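Sample pair:
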Amino acid sequence: MEAVELYDTTLRDGTQSEDISFTTEDKIKIAHRLDDLGIHYIEGGWPGSNPKDADFFDRVKTHRFKISRIAAFGSTCRADIPPEKDANIQALLAAETPVITIFGKSWDIHPLNAMNITLEQNLEIIFESIRYLKSRVETLIYDAEHFFDGYKHNREYAMKTLQAAAAARPDCLVLCDTNGGCLPHEIDRIVREVRQEVNLPLGIHCHNDSDVAVANTLVAIQAGATHVQGTINGYGERCGNANLCSIIPNLVLKMGIPCVGEDRLKKLVHVSRYVSELANVVHNKHQPYVGASAFAHKGGVHVSAVRKDSSTYEHISPGKVGNRQRVLVSDLSGASNILYKAKEFGIELDSKDERVQKIVRQLKELENRGYQFEGAEASFELLMDKALGICPEYFELMGYRVIDERKSTRNPPFSEATIMIRVNDRVEHTAAIGNGPVNALDNALRKALERFYPELKELKLRDFKVRVLSGDAGTAAVTRVLIESGDRDSRWGTVGVSGNIIQASWEALIDSIVYKLKKERVVGVS
């Protein structure tokens, strides 16, 4: 079969999930991870719809991608405004992306009942919008919204909308199951029938309202589609979109259809969990391929069998997607992951080294307490360094105090942190104010350390996320804090977990600073 193009719409369709919102910085970081995975197209948003998407397209212009091409998304022009004067069309061009995707209506009830235009007017705006944009952008993709519902309701008119689009020669026609109500046998039949009448590359875009978006996507490919749209983890409005984390391995490993290389496929778990961490939602551990439980085995016959031959209860080798086998009763796996990460960090370890098992035990204990190191690899690297006894002690905390005070309803809260640290034989005792207790603590810590380590002036806190790990205890619940820091050269993530949000934040802040000092190869203060 032909190679398949992957089109990711996490940064637009994915953000329509009621639980998800990304900052511009989040979207840029995710785009680079998708590029590493080998995604061909990344839909960044709708530049004419909101300031955040406009900001993304403005900033992403300065970024370079190895494989991915950024796409701007929007609608056809309005019936009473030509494309050259339509604000939405002009906003798409102003985004200056190499790819533009526009959608038009395929189901006759939409122009008649929602847009209040004639069916002929709808055909005209589809053709004119594509024709106008086609000569002004490298790649133009047309999404035939509600195509399958339209086809079932009025086949003749749905096909007319496709023919109007095809006459303007877009690079791909994408058939959309926008309401997510179709079943695989319907998708298969309709795509095959369209394939007989349209001589342009076809794509598929499915929603998951009937819980078959992945299956619908796969049968569409078997029927002739060569362009696949979806989101990481299936994020999206209502019940979500087709899940690329299932589609990609199914294509590569089960159907033998090239879309990403097997070396990139190994990054799938990391990308999946990274996106969920930035989205600040709990990663679905039962998700196929990438979930923590996808290759987990618990006791009895299963464990006995997989220890002898993993294929007895595993449909693929978990390492192919970057996952790992887990034995829940007595977890015998994990050492290979530690050895892999150690090599990545430039640390040579032997598989028989008892320190490897020490790190595995520590990792299991920390994960059980709520730590998660996806998106916090700096903390994981420091965890290894401490276990191996190779992490210098740059400073010692002697104590800290944080005061958060509000004197009246007319004044905002006032936060002050006092801190005492020891660097070698010198003690520094200082205080600082901040916009909230965590910021005050961060300011006091930097103030105390910068006289010893001036390179910390380069350190910037880029992002700060808090997640309640269990709501059962109410305001006393354990929380996980994820901090992203950076300097002129790089960025890194750190994590802290505690029932006290200040302590969790402190842990993540400390790791961030220690990692910066380690990165600069500072061994001590003379």
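Residues 329-333, 522-526 have pLDDT under 50 and may be disordered.
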